[in-house]
Design brief:
Blueprint (H helix, E strand, L loop, with lengths): L11 H7 L2 H4 L3 H17 L5 H19 L12 H13 L1 H5 L6 H37 L4 E6 L2 E7 H26 L1 E2 L15 H7 L4 E2 L3 H6 L2 H27 L7 E2 L18 H25 L13 H23 L2 E2 L1 H8 L6 H10 L4 H17 L9 H7 L13 H7 L8 H16 L4
Parallel strand pairs: 3-4
Antiparallel strand pairs: 1-2, 5-6
This protein binds arginine.
Length: 458
Amino acid sequence: MWKGRFSQPTADLLLRYGESISYDWRLYRHDIAGSIAHARAQVKAGLLTEAEFDAIESGLKGILADIEAGEFPWSQELEDVHMNIESELTRRIGAPGAKLHTARSRNDQVATDTRLYCRDAITQIVSKIRGMQKALLRKASQYANDMIPGYTHLQRAQPVTLGHHLLAYMEMFDRDISRLRQCRDRLNISPLGSGAIAGSTICLDRKQIADELGFRDISQNSMDAIADRDYIMEMLFDLALVGTHLSRLSEDMILWCTSEFGFATLDDAHTTGSSLMPQKKNPDICELTRGKTGRLYGNLTAVMVAVKGLPMTYNRDLQEDKEPLFDSIDTIELALDINAEMLDGLVLNRERAMEAVADPLLLATDLADYLVRQGIPFRQAHECVGKAVALSVATSTPLNQLTDEQFASISPAFGPDAREVFHLDRAFAMRTNPGAPNPDNTARRLAYWSQILEHAED
Ligand code: ARG
């Protein structure tokens, strides 16, 4: 492609070192779409005849079909997807193929292809996040009002319901979707026409090309357009955050499935055994998800570090953006699919959960609220209940079984009705404010999410 100025062939090691075709072949569909749009604009500019355009278009479509059939002769010598396709086109159709690269550089070409690729990938990932949300909705509906202990510092804190707990993840994934859509909207700008760095003396209709490719606008600074990889880092961050959410859910499930917690089990199809210990049933999907989240962070870091020291504009370092990008896309897509499937097989062990949640200490805060209702300032109420808890621990008496006298010795504000706070149903019923795990709130949120997911668009 650059033989004019060179008298030696490229070194074999450089071919191996510099090739990207082994992974950027994935851009073929978008590369071909970009080339067809570019060629159409060349017709408008009088650079190609209709007949030449037809030859280019049908040549590229033939190449597309061959690639999809797995019959395209990719060559490492041709370095990347752009040169592979262009040189094969010229081989097939002759002269018009050699005109295609007018007013274009691989620099604006790769930026265009990658943006188009990310745009499609986000649409696909959003629909997979929706799939995960649907699984959460099914499970949260099944166990809407089943109580489990809620934890802070991994210490039992207050009772919640499994429905409420799972719906927390629904909110996280919804923010992920909104972030990804915003990212898709921001990246949906056409860099084509920026050339290698400074545009071209041959002016094609950039807006026409952008419209054909479904971009919402064209870039306004050729140097920025060539150098910019913000959208890749942004997308990698968004995917890393999806991974974080999956990873935290994984950790919850790992804990729930231990014999120590014993709140839940996963089905056999989504767990593994041990080759040595016959009793084992391991939550490998959860652990792999937690582990793969490290890769997602690594991919983000790899691109950020590759970009941070680059002078304007294109530097070959930028070729290093694609493997992390593709890896994060593949990783998150599979993670979403498998986690949704696994969640369907999660079964709550109601007895164990109820046993744990029946611990009256989980309602110590409700007891302090009781004192507040008797006119005691909260800080004082907290101290009184703290004393009651200490007494309960010291005398090995459950908090709700301290005698009237014991309560009265701590504060006269404890009336005989104080123990009513220990009724779990009442404790949930009283938390009427939006956002709290009250059965009516949960029902409302379930209805809300089922409405959203039924009409979900990508
Ligand atoms: N394969 C290259 C990349 O991914 C395409 C752009 C090459 N541009 C260049 N000036 N060598 O970045």
